[in-house]
Prior knowledge:
Two copies of one chain form a homodimer.
Chain A: E1 9-14, E2 19-24, E3 30-36, H1 48-60, E4 65-69, E5 84-85, E6 88-89, E7 96-97, E8 106-109, E9 113-116, E10 119-122, H2 125-135, E11 141-145, E12 150-156, E13 159-166, H3 168-177, H4 192-204, H5 214-223, H6 227-245, H7 247-250, E14 255-258, H8 261-273, E15 278-281, H9 283-300
Parallel strand pairs in A: 1-4, 4-8, 5-9, 11-14, 14-15
Antiparallel strand pairs in A: 1-2, 2-3, 6-13, 7-8, 9-10, 11-12, 12-13
Helix pairs in contact in A: 2-9, 3-6, 4-6, 4-8, 5-6, 6-8
GO molecular function, one term (chains A, B): 2-dehydro-3-deoxygalactonokinase activity
Organism (chains A, B): Octadecabacter ascidiaceicola
GO biological process, one term (chains A, B): D-galactonate catabolic process
Amino acid sequence: MTANQTPTWIAADWGTSNLRLWAISNDGTVLDMRTSEKGMGQLAPDAFEPVLVDVAADWLKTADTVVACGMVGSRQGWVEAPYQTAPCSVCPNTMVKAAVQRDGLTVHVVPGIRQTDPADVMRGEETQIAGFLSLNDDWDGIICLPGTHTKWVHMSAGEVVSFQTCMTGEMFSLLAEESVLRHSIAESGWNDGTFLEALSETMSRPERMAGQLFSLRAAQLVHDTDPQTLRARLSGLLIGAELASTKPYWLGQNVALIGADAVSQPYLAGLAAQGVNVAHADATEMTLAGIKTAHAILETE
Amino acid sequence: MTANQTPTWIAADWGTSNLRLWAISNDGTVLDMRTSEKGMGQLAPDAFEPVLVDVAADWLKTADTVVACGMVGSRQGWVEAPYQTAPCSVCPNTMVKAAVQRDGLTVHVVPGIRQTDPADVMRGEETQIAGFLSLNDDWDGIICLPGTHTKWVHMSAGEVVSFQTCMTGEMFSLLAEESVLRHSIAESGWNDGTFLEALSETMSRPERMAGQLFSLRAAQLVHDTDPQTLRARLSGLLIGAELASTKPYWLGQNVALIGADAVSQPYLAGLAAQGVNVAHADATEMTLAGIKTAHAILETE
């Protein structure tokens, strides 16, 4: 086995629900990738190291450095990595070391970013943005990171100028799965036309939003509207409300979107309908690129 | 025991979660009231009669007529009482009889009301409105019935002209108890100033709503804002969004509110802040008055 086939460090994206690990050689090659469902949400601080050892014992024989981003650095995580305060660089040069038992192991945790007025926070997205910037020199504009809690981030000269979080993904899940609408919303399926029509409705008349949600249930009771159409309509109403709220971010701006395909498509379609052309980057690739950027900063220190 | 102390009929408000029964004498006196948690949501059609007999066996010795309103008349209830279609009278003169085993017993179920465009439905509220009209002759205007699914109803000449449902109560519960905000929202407590300020924000800038919910979580993380203040702020944001949506109903109109005190107070305060003076009637009293109206119609048939 040559040095180039031996892991020398480990990249970790450790979120609330999941853990994703990459074994990386000294020339930056990704040798292997593994995932676990042991997310931060179910781990006490002293349970993180055993999970790491359990998933990556063989890698740890040669890799003694771990760089981790995400909720692993929250107050409920392995070690609290205090937020940087925007405006600030996304380059994670203020990492915090987690407590470990294993001799020679060092775990660096990337801090999140907070904003004081209006109050907002991110953890994990800053690393994806750092990865995007590492691959797109001198990129200025708006970055949208759709997900459970979608972030809209104004970037300028490598700094987070301001950002805004919308709970659209979580609202969709709660309404589709937990509310009275669950009786009328399909678990999957889609209709582009319905989605764009609903999005346009809340974009142009956002003040009507509160009165439109129950109408999804009523449409099925009164008109027997099919549940897949109602699923697309719920998504359109909610993403339309988000686009109305974040219009000062994206209107007339240079916009890039970082996300997995499934969660990105509705945003790309919705923004295109508003005349916004959006560059699209994969979330996992940007996370890995961002962790590599953080590791490179460690090397030069 | 005189005839006036003997139940001759039973009024039932049978909702999704609860059942409320009143024993009523031949001169309309309420002799007794009982409640049960055996709501429609947990009962198969053939389980309703045993629950009724279990709760009110002694009353049924002399009372052979039951008049019931609420979800008991839904497709999943004891018997489906098909919706009347608005515009229509709230006087429940199209009751449906439920199937019963017991000799001599008759159970009449009050129908709900539906609207075709935009689609909407109510079940139970129509009876509260009928009760309100029976106590307020020639009343025209808007009736607001706050609750899990708040109704705004335009009444004219004893008819429901149109109505609109907002899921504000259910949204509040989902966000405060099931979403990421649950970590930051107190289970009780209040702050009038915070509530009215938040309500004013979404009333005047409803397009910002989607971006303001996560800020409740962030406010605690960044500024350590206390959870009771955040509870009042969440309520203010949501009721403000509802008032923005229903403005065509209440602006410049004669408004009455039917509801229990706890659920009514935020609406009364919010509407007062918008310069709307609102009459307030108790929901339980209006339900009973409405069921009495329905029973009186039976008597005259």
